[in-house]
Hints:
Elements: H1 19-36, H2 45-68, H3 71-85, E1 92-95, H4 97-102, H5 107-119, E2 123-130, H6 131-135, E3 140-148, E4 155-163, H7 165-172, E5 180-188, E6 194-198, E7 212-216, H8 223-240, H9 253-271, H10 278-286, H11 292-309
Parallel strand pairs: 6-7
Antiparallel strand pairs: 1-2, 2-3, 3-4, 4-5, 5-6
Helix pairs in contact: 1-2, 2-3, 3-11, 10-11
Amino acid sequence: xxxxxxxxxxxxxxxxxxxxxxxxxxxxxxxxxxxxxxxxxxxxxxxxxxxxxxxxxxxxxxxxxxxxxxxxxxxxxxxxxxxxxxxxxxxxxxxxxxxxxxxxxxxxxxxxxxxxxxxxxxxxxxxxxxxxxxxxxxxxxxxxxxxxxxxxxxxxxxxxxxxxxxxxxxxxxxxxxxxxxxxxxxxxxxxxxxxxxxxxxxxxxxxxxxxxxxxxxxxxxxxxxxxxxxxxxxxxxxxxxxxxxxxxxxxxxxxxxxxxxxxxxxxxxxxxxxxxxxxxxxxxxxxxxxxxxxxxxxxxxxxxxxxxxxxx
Length: 312
């Protein structure tokens, strides 16, 4: 059947586009179990986990396309998500701990991280919700607990994220991480660039942002180790710039929000510019090797982005 809106083929994507990724993931799971039980020997378990993660990512792309019905509609969903998250500065809603409970988030995690950061000299400011993350099709439910370092040079955000809809389903069946619990450190420099350090390595799959030096460390790293790595990261950036820049000192929650706005604007400007390769971003999250349907969806994402930015 022809697509009535003229945006390419309107064929439905079959669920078969997810079969080989699920088989790949399943094989990896079986091999991990067999290694654990001693049936298989050797050092192949790292590759088994690669199969599991890669299979899950490919299946995610296939399920997105299958769920929305065509590569074109899948691409439209991804483009809409990009516009929602990177439309400009974020809108914040200040909340209290009751929202953490209502959203089904891990209160113990927030308490533990608050204690750890307090021991490192950070002070807790406020808990917030990013409105745009709740309103897009991923239905993200998260509360960000904000902190400032004792000298005011570093912001920290601690959050547990849960998703609804399609992404939530993938988490429940094990195709995506069930526990997304993150600690971020962010320092603004006087030249309006930023240095960020995080224990969310999956976020490292996204493309770089001009003006933001990012460092991603493994899940499970302690708060003190992450903080030490961030301090070294900041030191290296300042040294590289000839010590002509200094960290911006923040004192209040309002100043923290203003700095976060400047950080978000850097991201939004890049994501809405012709310099951003939206198709490559989709392929990067998919690991590079994708099915023809998924490749078509990545190409369509790139086309939509070019149209919006005037590049195409």
